[in-house]
Specification:
The structure is a homodimer.
Chain A: H1 21-34, H2 47-54, H3 58-70, E1 74-77, E2 81-84, H4 98-104, E3 109-120, H5 122-127, E4 135-145, E5 148-157, H6 166-171, H7 174-180, E6 185-195, H8 199-205, E7 213-222, E8 227-236, E9 242-247
Antiparallel strand pairs in A: 1-2, 3-4, 4-5, 5-8, 6-7, 7-8
The structure holds a DNA duplex.
DNA sequence: AAAGTATAAATGTCAGGACATACTCTTGAC
DNA sequence: GTCAAGAGTATGTCCTGACATTTATACTTT
């Protein structure tokens, strides 16, 4: 059962580059899946052949393939071979912010900071694994796009980020500000629900009649497990839904 | 910087077992984290030492550790060592069904099948990557717990599962039935939103006054990328919220 | 013709070794 | 006393090699 008909994607390897070989391979092959050079269902070049063709060891090629499998780009079955996965199961990078999401859709997000002050909040502190009386930076923002409001976002930030200014937050998204400070949120626990808006929320979101809001609370942590942010967001359900990929491992 | 104070967890390895050595190691060390023998922040035995102690090669031990890192149990930093992660970032197995969720909480889910028929549905068929006129099994169920309804669940199933009976569905959850048929959903794309209920939904869920519903549509696939199920669910927002872990990779 | 049986192809597991790189802490120079 | 260089330690990358297991196909036998 030799792999026949597998389109040979050209891969160029730079051994001087600091980026790992397996990642160079995964990147270039992922691009081939993304731009359609490799189609869903297509057989994928087998490990050993690919390793030989690229002049790499099998473990290195294997790791590249594993990286693509983890992203849902490829499917491997023992004895059967590797194939390009159904397009619907491709996972995108997750943990994006509303700001990034809107920008990716080609819309222009606008942010107004409504509150910006130091407070002690027991619920937020416990979510962030801090002492109950720790002073946190409370930020309430209204985010809009295309001229009308979409979300009211309440966030609590730990002391080391208490010096973030209103201006920074109005220019860009919270996650972009954090990334700029060298913080990379890596894991988040989110709880999503729905309810009727409070009167403040109705005013901020310009809601009339019987329109519910979609709510999300989030605790975000960096790779080492330090708390980054606790948030309580509230979206116009009419204009926004949350899209996620879930997978079993 | 020798790893000192690292609690040595005893690990027993069965080389005759069909379960991979790296998984045996990961399982036993994960248990040590779960039951508190290893505490968050504790230094973890370093790779080479652990490999030597267990009589395994470094790659094998490394893979076990990687498995735990992927689950958020451990944090590795180059030059620094491996440590037990903050408890809040531990990821749980996802892709559970409402039935399993309720049972885990110690509640008793009850299901009533409202509709059960073969239909052709263009939207569902396209979500499942099938021809638009493919006959699908349409199932509408009302799920309740503790005496009152929680969700109205509409699902479309591909032809190979069209023989699932009303009885099977009332006894247990859809995912349990599918697992019983050898199908393991592995990836799902979910979209979560909120809206006001339709009159049918109000009646099924026993809603009065102004109460919104939380909605979720889901496309589920097995490990090989074959469509398993397309669902459109609708929950009493008062009694239910969706809990997820998101992570960047 | 149908059933069971070898065979080949592919991925899965495991070993052992070599060198690179990041981080911390100590030592030494100014 | 402060800062920079270096030693030490741990993880990260990459290699070669070997054998196991699963699956489909072609072949043989009944």
């Amino acid at each position: 059962m030799q792999t026949v008909g597998a389109h040979l994607v050209s891969v160029e390897i730079d051994r001087e580059s600091p980026v790992p070989l397996y990642h160079q391979v995964a990147e270039q092959l992922s691009a081939a899946v993304a731009d359609g050079r490799l189609q869903p269902g297509d057989p994928f070049e087998n490990e050993v052949a690919l390793a030989q063709r690229l002049g790499l060891s099998r473990p290195t090629v294997r790791r590249a393939i594993q990286e693509m499998v983890d992203q849902g780009l490829l499917v491997r079955r023992r004895g059967l071979g590797t194939h390009v996965a159904n397009r619907k199961v491709h996972r995108r990078a997750e943990l994006t912010s509303l700001f990034d999401d809107l920008r990716r859709e080609g819309r222009t997000p606008v942010t107004t900071v409504v509150r910006h002050e130091l407070v002690a909040d027991e619920r937020a502190a416990s979510a962030l694994d801090l002492e109950p009386d720790t002073p946190l930076l409370l930020v309430v923002r209204v985010r809009g796009a295309d001229g009308h409001p979409i979300a009211v976002m309440t966030n609590w930030l730990p002391p080391q980020h208490a010096d973030i200014t209103r201006e920074e937050l109005e220019d860009t998204g919270l996650y972009a500000v954090l990334r700029g400070r060298g913080v990379r949120p890596a894991v988040a626990r989110q709880t999503i629900g729905a309810r009727m808006p409070t009167s403040v929320e109705r005013r901020h979101l310009g809601l009339r009649g019987q329109q519910p809001v979609l709510t999300m609370t989030r605790m975000a942590f960096d790779a080492s497990g330090r708390a980054v942010e606790f948030g309580d967001h509230c979206y116009r359900a009419e204009d926004y839904s949350i899209d996620i990929m879930v997978d079993e491992r």
